[in-house]
Amino acid sequence: MTRYIRYAFLGSLGIVLVSVSLANRQLVTLKMLPDDLAHLLGFNFSLTMPLFLVVLGGIAAGVVIGFVWEWLREHKHRRTADVKRREVRKLEREVKSLKQKQNDGKDDVLALLDDVA
């Protein structure tokens, strides 16, 4: 059921993006600097492209910047989780070692019963 909802959402999103793209095909010029500042500095970078590429590219750039920002922000949480994971592994090895020492010399069946308890 949720698969169909996801497909319906993606289909409607695709239709909206295609219609926006078809409605905004006119060319626009993007300039790196205002004209007065460009004349003062002696250079200006400009790029002419369809308006829908500017809009969709801005959205894509915002999503990528947001993902990178969150990944950097969550670094401390991932590091803490990694430290805790290593500590759990160490403690599990220690418990296993202590159980083996406790069960030395016991019958195998009794050792298995102690492991379960």
TrEMBL record:
<feature type="domain" description="Lipopolysaccharide assembly protein A">
    <location>
        <begin position="45"/>
        <end position="95"/>
    </location>
</feature>
<keyword id="KW-1133">Transmembrane helix</keyword>
<feature type="transmembrane region" description="Helical">
    <location>
        <begin position="47"/>
        <end position="69"/>
    </location>
</feature>
<keyword id="KW-0472">Membrane</keyword>
<keyword id="KW-0175">Coiled coil</keyword>
<dbReference type="GO" id="GO:0005886">
    <property type="term" value="C:plasma membrane"/>
</dbReference>
<keyword id="KW-1003">Cell membrane</keyword>
<dbReference type="Pfam" id="PF06305">
    <property type="entry name" value="LapA_dom"/>
</dbReference>
<feature type="coiled-coil region">
    <location>
        <begin position="74"/>
        <end position="108"/>
    </location>
</feature>
<protein>
    <recommendedName>
        <fullName>Lipopolysaccharide assembly protein A domain-containing protein</fullName>
    </recommendedName>
</protein>
<dbReference type="InterPro" id="IPR010445">
    <property type="entry name" value="LapA_dom"/>
</dbReference>
<keyword id="KW-0812">Transmembrane</keyword>
